[in-house]
Amino acid sequence: MIRFLTSGESHGRCLAAIIDGMPYGLKISEKDINLELSRRRKGYGRGERAASIENDIAEIVSGVRQGRTIASPITILIKNRDWQNWSEVMCLEKMKFDKRFIMPSARPGHADLAGYLKYDSEEIRDILERASARETAARVAVGSVCKKFLSEFGIRITSYVKEIGGIKARNVNIDIDKIISASEQSPVRCLDSAAEKNMIKMIEKAQADGNTLGGRFVVVVSGAPVGLGSHAQWDNKLDARLSLALMSIQSVKAVAIGAGFNASELSGSKFHDEIYYKKGIGYLRKTNNAGGIEGGISNGETIICDCIVKPIPSLKKPLTTVDLKTKKSVKAEAVRSDVCVVPAAGVVGESAVAVEIAKAFTEKFSGDTIREIKRNFSAYRAYLAKR
Ligand SMILES: Cc1cc2nc3c(=O)[nH]c(=O)nc-3n(C[C@H](O)[C@H](O)[C@H](O)COP(=O)(O)O)c2cc1C
Question: Are the C-beta atoms of residues 376 and 361 closer than 8 Å to each other?
Fold first, then answer.
């Protein structure tokens, strides 16, 4: 079973991830991980930290030998480049540090206040350091290994942006290769160039106003076979598993599979994807409103996950909050931060999805080695070809 944990604080020494259960014999390098980490830093609207300080480099410190996995837990470290500047604030031992680093108030929209009260904490920093989306770098590292695993079986995952600050992109119906090339070229990962221009203008306006923007991204999985996940138990349903993984990303507030966000408006005859059969091809659909999953099981169509991201909560023109000592109304800390993270959130979403699909895939085609899983998978494909 593939499972993982991440650890590390935003301004701590480093982030870490341990991936357990990755089969033996997967070719993987630090370069594969770094490529995904660099994709996470991009996107028009990211702040100074993403552009410079988060120039992340992954170090694999266990689980890989001679260029391939050896079935032991894989440990990945990502050093925080500005840790030296924070070594007093983040010191393991109790020591004096510049009081300016103590946050006097909680920022609305962050875990600050709820965490401060829940843990009877002395300082909001104890909460915000881990709640920060810096943690998503570790998750992208994990996702990059899972993506590499899935690519061995012809499964590919990408993402694109559908909406930023109310600017909606036109619906597109293109294959995964075109989605990959168009999204990688766009500064906002958008496939509609007219909408892209307006999204950039909206981001610039928000930046000038000291404001932030949210939006919507879509993760697309091509090549997933029929039969991942299960209808039989609530926590085995693939759509439920994907939703949990995506919803756990900082600032994601809604997840739909396929045309889920429109399901309340469409009648049954419009929503459901009718089934056809063609000799040589097998079962097929002309539409994919189900987003590749029916009854918790992948149905062989492209898996589509649609996610809504809230506007990020740290504003240059700060929101009203309360001073934790005096209880007087004050403005939240004005910090330099991102203005819009929707494109980056999409890249994190790809990783979240990659992990869940890799887990479901290894459950279905289980084996200790990549070779063994390949044998199981090709036997299944041969069986499907006869159905
Ligand atoms: C890639 C990424 C980068 C983010 N950067 C920031 C940021 O610079 N400033 C900020 O206030 N929130 C940022 N966020 C969002 C917050 O981390 C998030 O809103 C906060 O932790 C509260 O979690 P919740 O929105 O899921 O409730 C970012 C989110 C992601 C996915």
Answer: no
| 341 CB within 6 A, ligand 1 | yes
Q: How far apart are CA 19 and CA 34, in angstroms?
A: 16
Task: Specify the residue for token string 């943690």.
Answer: 135
Q: Are strands 215-222 and 156-164 parallel, antiparallel or unpaired?
A: antiparallel
Q: Is the CB of 254 under 6 A from ligand 1?
A: no
pLDDT tens string, the chain, 387 residues long: the values are: 999 999 999 999 999 999 999 999 999 999 999 999 999 998 898 876 666 667 899 999 999 999 999 999 999 999 999 999 999 999 999 988 888 889 999 999 999 999 999 999 999 999 999 999 999 999 999 999 999 999 999 999 999 999 999 999 998 878 899 999 999 999 999 999 999 999 999 999 999 999 999 999 999 999 999 999 999 999 999 999 999 999 999 999 999 999 999 999 999 999 999 999 999 889 999 999 999 999 999 999 999 999 999 999 999 999 999 999 999 999 998 777 789 999 999 999 999 999 999 999 999 999 999 999 999 999 999 999 998
Tell me the longest C-alpha to C-alpha distance in the chain: 75
Q: Ligand 1: does its nearest atom lie under 6 Å from the Cβ of 384?
A: no
Measured from the CA of 313, which atom of ligand 1 is nearest?
11
195 closest CA partner among 166, 177, 169: 169
The number of CA neighbours under 13 Å toward the Cβ of 226 is: 15
Output the pTM of the full model: 0.97
Domains of the chain as residue ranges with CATH: 3-385 (3.60.150.10)
Which atom of ligand 1 lies nearest, measured to the CA of 110? Answer: 22
341 Cα–ligand 1 center, Å:
8
Does ligand 1 have an atom closer than 6 angstroms to the CB of 132? yes
Q: List the structure tokens of 378.
A: 């090709």
Determine if ligand 1 sits within 6 Å of the CB of residue 169.
Answer: no
Q: Whose CA is closest to 3, among 264, 362, 369, 262? A: 362
Does the beta carbon of 130 lie inside 6 Å of ligand 1?
no
Atom in ligand 1 nearest the alpha carbon of residue 40: 1
- Which ligand 1 atom sits nearest the alpha carbon of residue 131? 21
Tell me how far the alpha carbon of residue 89 lies from the centroid of ligand 1, in angstroms: 21
